[in-house]
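Posted in: Protein Modeling Q&A

I'm a second-year student putting together a small comparison for a lab meeting, and my supervisor asked me to include a predicted structure for Group 1 truncated hemoglobin. I've never done this before, so apologies if this is the wrong subforum. The sequence is pasted below exactly as I got it from our records. If anyone can share the structure token output, I'd also love a short note on what stands out.
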Amino acid sequence: MSLFEALGGERGIRRFVDELGRRLVDDAELGPLFAGVDGEGLQRHREHYFSAVLGGPELYSGRGLREAHRHLGIDDAQFDRFATIADEALAAIDAGADVVADVRDLLSRLRPVVVAGASGSISRPGDPDRLA
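Accepted answer (user: helix_wrangler)
Welcome! Here is the predicted structure, written out as tokens:
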């Protein structure tokens, strides 16, 4: 079973993205990164992206993660905070511990693409940066 299915398909992805988005905007550290951003557009974008990378039928053709995040200068601490908020959002929608761990694993593999100046790269088929 894919993570998309384990989260409850489209409805589960939407619940996760809604909870994640609310928590990110409300977060004292990360919230300012979203000032002036089209929240609804970003939420739709996240739904498409997470549906694709978590094994759903969605084909995503948006900007790559590196391009979308480069101007933000995200550091390791901010990335870690995002991952923690994602864990909390998943827990809030009653995702199982295995799902939370698997999503955390996926997010950890995105660090070299999202964090400014991070070394390393993702080179597996289905690379999330290539999907986005």
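A couple of things worth pointing out for your meeting: The CA atoms of residues 66 and 113 lie 5 Å apart. The chain has one domain: 3-131.
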